[in-house]
Amino acid sequence: MTTVKDLLVGKGTEVWTAHPDDEVRTTLQMMSTKNIGAVPVVENDKVVGFFSERDFARYSISADCFDMSTPIRELMVHPVFFVDPGQSIEDCMSVMTNKKLRHLPVLEDGKLTGIISIGDVVKNLLEEKQETINALEHFLWVNMI
Phi-psi bin for 16: left (phi > 0), alpha (psi -120 to 50), beta? Predict the structure, then answer.
């Protein structure tokens, strides 16, 4: 069983964040530069919200006229669902599916240590399935001889 911690070891733990007072424009520019689709919103070392490209899309089509200088606090999603490093990837997939989330911040002892995306989860599950296929093919090949 692969855990969140296992996945972060391979992925890395670098996390880009926004502050609630950051402007939408600044946050989107940072997300574009870093090639990321979402950021935790952090204030005083505490995750207070989450902002994604999807949140911006919803905001931009629901507002008659949107202002790129709007603070992230007005668009961020809260409360935030978290996972801890000891949870299984299957647990993450269940939370993501049930809550319709694409990203989950990882907290360890109250500290933000990473982010797991639905892409990370799918990639890991595909790798595990491929390992199973390879083992079964090897088993069949050895037993045919």
Answer: beta
pTM, to two decimals: 0.83
52/58 Cα distance (integer angstroms) = 10
- Single-letter code of the amino acid located at 22: D
Predicted confidence at residue 145, as pLDDT, reads 65
Over residues 32-42, the pLDDT tens digits come to: 999 999 999 99
Model confidence over 44-61: pLDDT tens digits?
A: 999 999 999 998 988 888
* CATH superfamily membership of 4-144: CBS-domain (3.10.580.10)
As given in the structure block, the two tokens for residue 117 are 């995306």
How far is it, in rounded angstroms, from Cα 38 to Cα 42? 13
Q: The tokens of 86 are what? A: 């000891």
Contact 27, 76 (CB under 8 A): no
Please state, in angstroms and as integers, the Cα–Cα distance from residue 38 to each residue in 6, 35, 41, 49, 126, following that order.
Answer: 21, 9, 10, 11, 23
* Residue partners of 80: CB distance under 8 A and separation at least 6: 40, 47, 48, 49, 50, 105
